[in-house]
Design a protein that fits this description.
39% of the residues lie in helices and 22% in strands. With 362 residues, it is of the alpha+beta class. The protein folds into 2 domains: 5-92; 113-346, BirA Bifunctional Protein, domain 2 (2-Layer Sandwich). Strands 1, 5, 6, 7, 8, 9, 10 and 11 form an 8-stranded mixed sheet that branches. A 3-stranded antiparallel sheet has the order 2-4-3. Helix 1 (5-20) runs parallel beside helix 4 and helix 5 packs across helix 10. The longest helix has 40 residues, at 53-92. It starts with a helix and ends in a 16-residue tail after the last helix.
């Protein structure tokens, strides 16, 4: 027998062991015993230097060839075992697709009505090509009052109605009492035509069933060379029809007074009660929903716009009040009580995304 025939015999012995394994764990145990630090082939590799010079080259080649063949065989058999294991798992873990889906818990979390109604309002006005504008919650008197033509004697400027903050460099700071300062900032930084809505938080020192110290508003502004009262009426009618999801709506405009608009209008929509539910759009009763008017010429001058060239109209409404009217909530204070029972009742599912095509509240 050739003295190197023992490598062939060793390979046959190893192959026989490999073909007898049934699991990946058994195969790994054989691999370690052969190719590990103290394995059979590893010991042969360490023994190359101990061979006589004329045999060293051939001995080394035979050992490395054996190692390569054994490694390939182990890898091939491992692949076969993995495939067999996957097939077994698939056959033993069949899924009955006719079974109902288990509850995922996604309905536990609810979208707050304020967030939902804000998205509904944004969806409607975005469809009318209004852009969303934002501004800081902490304002100065110039943007919150002066530029809006609100005189020093106006009750809104009194400390009993407004949250004033410590002065900065002698200048008063306050929590904005409306989102109208966003209109001022927009007109100062952008050139007409302007078409924006400004949703956001506002703050007033007031608290009862229909008022809270912090509440939400959305205001709209259009500035152009031909803005007029007819356009204002159309925008408000289309908004009310879309928001309350009715095909037609009876609306009336009442004269009012706001320092930043002239003329100023309160907007009411018809309503009636049926089966203890408020039906909006028709009826003999009236519901006040928002204030509006044509932008006062002095406000235009305050933002460096020529009232002889540009005209504008503006409107504003309380998001909290809209939510109460549409979804039948009676106490505004409950909106901010962090009562999970209330939120589970009035809240919206995570995927109830407002859409004009499928209905805002569907």
């Amino acid at each position: 027998m050739n003295k190197f025939d023992k490598f062939l015999q060793l390979q046959e012995q190893i192959s026989k062991k490999i073909t007898q394994v049934k699991t990946l764990e058994q195969l790994e145990s054989i691999r370690v015993s052969i190719l590990g630090k103290k394995g059979t082939i590893t010991s042969l590799l360490k023994n190359i230097s101990a061979q006589i010079p004329e045999d060293r080259k051939v001995f080394g080649e035979q050992v490395n060839q054996l190692k390569r063949k054994v490694t390939e065989e182990i890898d091939r058999y491992k692949s076969n075992l993995l495939d067999a294991e996957i097939i077994e798992k698939i056959s033993n873990n069949k899924i009955d697709v006719t079974l109902p889906l288990p509850e995922s818990g996604i309905d536990i979390g609810k979208i707050h009505p304020i967030s939902q109604v804000t998205e509904e309002v944004i969806e409607i006005f975005s469809d009318m090509d209004f852009y969303i504008a934002e501004g800081p919650d902490i304002e100065d008197e110039q943007h919150n009052f002066n530029a809006l033509n609100i005189p020093d004697s106006h009750p809104a400027r009194q400390m009993v109605d407004t949250f004033y903050l410590p002065k900065v460099n002698g200048e008063s700071r306050l929590l904005r009492t409306h989102t109208s300062p966003v209109q001022i900032r927009t007109m100062l930084t952008k050139k007409p035509p302007i078409r924006i809505i400004a949703p956001g938080r506002t703050y007033r020192s007031d608290s009862d069933q229909t008022h809270t110290p912090m509440f939400h508003q959305v205001e709209g502004l259009v500035i152009d060379t031909d803005a007029n009262m007819g356009q204002l009426k159309w925008v408000l009618e289309e908004f009310c029809k879309s928001f309350f999801e009715v095909s037609s709506i009876k609306m009336r405009l009442r004269p009012s007074y706001f320092p930043f608009t002239e003329p100023s209008l309160e907007v009411d929509i018809a309503c009636h009660k049926e089966n203890n539910q408020l039906i909006v759009g028709e009826g003999e009763d009236w519901l006040e929903v928002l204030g509006s008017g044509m932008v006062h010429p002095q406000v235009l001058r305050n933002v460096n716009l020529d009232p002889k060239v540009y005209k504008g109209f503006a409107f504003g409404m309380g998001i909290d009040r809209l939510a109460m009217l549409k979804y039948g909530m009676t106490d505004l204070r409950a909106f901010f009580d962090s009562d999970l029972r209330w939120l589970r009742h009035y809240g919206f599912r995570a995927f109830d995304i407002p859409s004009l095509s499928k209905g805002l509240s569907e």
